[in-house]
Amino acid sequence: MEKAVGSPSLGCSYPQKNAEILSSQYGINLFLAGLLLTFAWAVHAVGISKSHLLSYLITLMLIQLLWMLWYLCRSCKQRRLIRDKDTHAGARWLKCGITLFAVITLVLDSFKIGYYIDFSNCLSPTEGIFPVTHAVHTILQVYFLWCHAKDIIQSFKTLERFGVIHSVFTNLLLWTNGVLTESKHQLNEHKERLITLGFGNITMVLDDHAPQCNCTTTTLCSIFSQGIYYLYPFNIEYHILASTMLYVLWKNIGRKVEHHQQHKTLFKFHGITVGMIFGLIILTSTIAIVVVYLIQIGRSKIKSELALTMFYLHAIFVLALMCTAGIVALLIYRLEDRSLDNSKNPARKLDAELLVGTAAGSWLLSWGSILAIICAQAHPKYTWYNLPYSILVIIEKYIQNLFIIESIHREQEKVNDDIKTLRIVTISRGNTLSLTPLYKEIYNDRAARADGEVPCLFKGSMCGRENGGGAAKEETSHENSSVMHSGSDFSFCSRNSVTNHKRRILKNIAAFLFLCNLSLWIPPAFGCRPEYDNGLEEIVFGFEPWIIVVNLAMPFSIFYRMHSAASLFEVNCKT
């Protein structure tokens, strides 16, 4: 009988597991084919042109558009088909973030369309079709994620698995294409900067795949070509965020959800003034450093060295502050006794894996710089600042990952049950009086407790017997005195005060680290990359090997900062 009962569940789960494996293999092969095509175009493989790569990407986007339209139509016709929702997936702030990046991506597509029009005489038609298709794809995908990112699909599961995984790897390929295009632009300026620093022995011809014809309107062409590369960082972040949200949707297909009350997490500026002020100072100074760096680097040897020194000193100071803040937060967690939430949560698991996985990109670059400094025979003065900078990058990410992962796994603090059900019993004249404050009165004092004040639980909440008014007051006074002397019944007041102070410190730390991560995202995203411009690593490892390492690791390093900022925003809301 036990076998008979168990067999249906096994029969149901086995095909679904197969569908998951098959769909994941389909997505990986789809991605590898596109990755190889992208690589072939980048190295000028015989018979492979940019039009072949763009045609492949256009085909993938059109297939995803058809699937999303089918899903949206089916959802509208059968509104009761999908009932369960994953409350942890597709947070509102995440949707707002991806919408912002999508709007800037649409601006990028419009620039590409204008660029194609100006160079239409020598560009393939696919270069004009691609931005149009991409713009339509972006609009529909953002709408789809706003409406259905929380869905837990329970019908047509096999078909939906292939549709969602197709969307995941389509976005990853679009991300790869953006990273490659942006990296090629960075490399075009890289060699000139190295020559100004005195590394003239490095020789390598870099090709930027520029159009082989003249522009119809020179001014517009210059605006479009320069604007495109400044907008690529937002396009890159958009596609990686979309792929992660779609991956969570794919993991949730067929999932059984435990229905429990979900606490709303709202962002509040109250109580985080200190963290915001220091964070904004770091953000403002970082923007100023990036502007000066981009202006000075490559002008002359002295100016380039000063720009690199300035960057390293500022980064060392910021990373040291972040390490200190992270250590303080972890010490506060060690002093608290709160259980961790180990329930199944695909979104939270993906967040933790992405933090550790993408941090490996920065760690790889940092260890490369450390080895280069140790092994190099000649050391220009500015390269010595790279050593503490690289060490702090490793330590800071290690500490910050511990803080974020523990924060997202900690159970949300609930209202103390003692406050809800508090009943004070006293003995008077051999009778038991039940002195129960009104539920509303206790909860009206929650704001006072948040500021560390002790709530007045007895104000107007005691009732005497219908004796004389004076006797009742005297009895009430006596009972108040006896209750207030029993400090053990009100120890939660002092505990709440300490807890509130700890919570306020943690919220300020999360706000400070949030702005610091945004600050550290800006330099590499907009071309301030000392890993390229330092020159020492190229001498030790060779130009081509180090450039390959940087081009592989830098996208993960950039994504890490944005993902950390998003995670810290969630931590601030939960704390």
Automatic annotation (TrEMBL):
Which Gene Ontology cellular-component terms appear in the entry? plasma membrane
Where in the cell does this protein reside? Cell membrane
Q: Does the keyword Ribonucleoprotein apply?
A: no
Q: Which residues cross the membrane?
A: 26-47, 53-72, 93-117, 129-146, 229-250, 271-295, 311-333, 354-379, 505-527, 539-560
- Where it mainly occurs, coarsely classed, is membrane
Q: Which GO terms describe its molecular function?
A: proton channel activity
Please report the record's description of how this protein sits within the membrane: Multi-pass membrane protein
In the record, biological process GO terms are: inner ear morphogenesis
Question: What keywords would UniProt list here?
Answer: Cell membrane, Hydrogen ion transport, Ion channel, Ion transport, Membrane, Transmembrane, Transmembrane helix, Transport
The record's InterPro entries line, in alphabetical order, gives: Otopetrin
Q: Which Pfam families match?
A: Otopetrin
Q: Which family is this sequence assigned to?
A: Belongs to the otopetrin family.
Q: Which PANTHER family does the record cross-reference, listed alphabetically? A: PROTON CHANNEL OTOP, PROTON CHANNEL OTOP1
What is the protein name stated in its UniProt record?
A: OTOP1 protein
> Which species is this UniProt entry from?
Eolophus roseicapilla
What gene, per UniProt, encodes this protein?
Otop1
